Amino acid sequence: MPGIGRATCLALAKAGASVVINYSADSSSADELVKQIGSEQAHAVQADAGTINGAEEMVKSTVERFGRLDIVVPNAGILPMKEIGNTTEEDFDSTYRLNVKGPYFLVQVRYARSQEMFEADSVIQKALPHLASGSHIVLLSTTLCHASTVTPNYLLYCSTKGAIEQMTKVLSKDLGRMGISVNAVAPGPTGTELFMKGKSEQVLNTIASFNPHNRIGTPEEVADAIVFLSSEGSRWVTGQVLGVNGGMASV
Predict the structure, then answer these.
(1) Which domain of life is it from (predicted)?
(2) 19-23 vs 71-72, strand pairing mode
């Protein structure tokens, strides 16, 4: 069962993009995806997505392999089911590290290189190809930030996605002057392996009933929205959070 990251890689590749797939430890899924797409169009990189060094490695490897960087989709994240009463400091730090710090500094690496472009002629050839006007950053939020009822165990997760939505709005103003668009998608319940794990058929049917279409979304439907926000067709869309939830909630 594919996740949103895998579906996004496949959809972007189908649209003609070369893709770099990040993995943290086990390369098997990333390697299989590279094989499926084709090594001439896909590349796997091991890096800790929650660290500055990991962000630098992903950018460096992308530019070395494909010569430029046009689209950034920081998809890595965790969903701890923690009410405030049983959240530890380690829970808090690890969740913010991957869900917020990782995307924040991945974008900063991109932004810092754009400053080098203006400060040192010697790096123009390296920075300009992957920081051209018209590039796109697509962040990942959640419809739960906008739902009318949310259970207490989503508190920690939703707080990280609230941070992502503020990053989307503020960064779009900052990076817009360089022609870089920044948007986010906010998926509703989506049939990924992580989402389906441990849920009975009755629970899944109940969740599906909250949607006017009476079903759960697919990773491919979220991926299609990410492709749109990564394309020329979204050139006048920035600073927006797009709900991809079949009308379950307004974003």
Answers:
(1) Eukaryota
(2) unpaired
